[in-house]
Design goal:
Elements lengths: L21 H10 L2 H14 L9 E4 L2 E2 L9 E2 L2 E5 L4 E7 L6 H15 L13 E7 L20 E7 L6 E12 H11 L7 H10 L8 H6 L3 H15 L1 H47 L1
Parallel strand pairs: 5-6, 6-8
Antiparallel strand pairs: 1-4, 2-3, 4-5, 7-8
Helix pairs in contact: 2-5, 4-5
Length: 288
Amino acid sequence: MSKEPRGKIRIDYLQLMDLRIDYAFKLLFTKGDPRLLISLLNAIFANKKINRVIKSLTIKNPYLDKESGEDKLSILDIRAELSDGTAVLVEMHLHGLGELKAKTIRSWARAFGEDLEVGKSYTSQPPTITIAFTNGSIKSLENKKTIYEDTSKIHRLCMIMDCEDYTVFTDAMELHYIDMKAFAKAINDADGITNEDGLFAKWLSVITQKEINNKAIIENACEEEEIFMAVSALQLQSEDKYTRQAYQRRKDEIYFFNKAMYEKEQAELEIEQLRKENEELRAQLAMK
């Protein structure tokens, strides 16, 4: 691929791997220049006006060890440690959103507990931050909807707070949920990104590029140095034969998993409908 001036990169969108597939996401942000992950994380924190600027980080083993022989092995896409010891867990979720909150809290708890060194006080424990990219709203999947239901919300920040005065009780837990589907819809409806949207929106346009109608949005995002580097690296990775094969295998796994989950949900809905019809029929017969 010939070198193009920054912001004028030619992108083969048909060939480009989808960063919503966890294999491609992890490959780009852990095997390449660390500035890519640093830029993405800083954009996420800045979007919620969090006073935290990362200048360096270390990629750690993404596996959380089993607590017992019966315990399931928890696998993260990215596990990083900041210079102050803060742990950052990053996950990409295209399926299983119904259990996502429980999964992310469990991952947070496991990582938070593992990082406490023997002999040190609990107050010295650095925070653990979990960031989950989701392909849909975790709120909209709940059966009980509340007045706070907002399926268009792109970025949710959840912390432990006092329920009366809404002050932060502890900074030990910080959970970010980023709805990629809601973002793509908002950008397609607006047909563009403004300067007010910031670096966060530019990164998300690259991550969700398969769903963005106006591809000029992504090309304009490449005016940012780190995003230009990311797209350039992603193109090279997408052209590699063996990388492409591994990516396709993972993509197929996700497709068939989603298909099986959908069929299971449809079957459960049909059973529930038959149960209701049976109860109505019994009620009618009882009245005669």
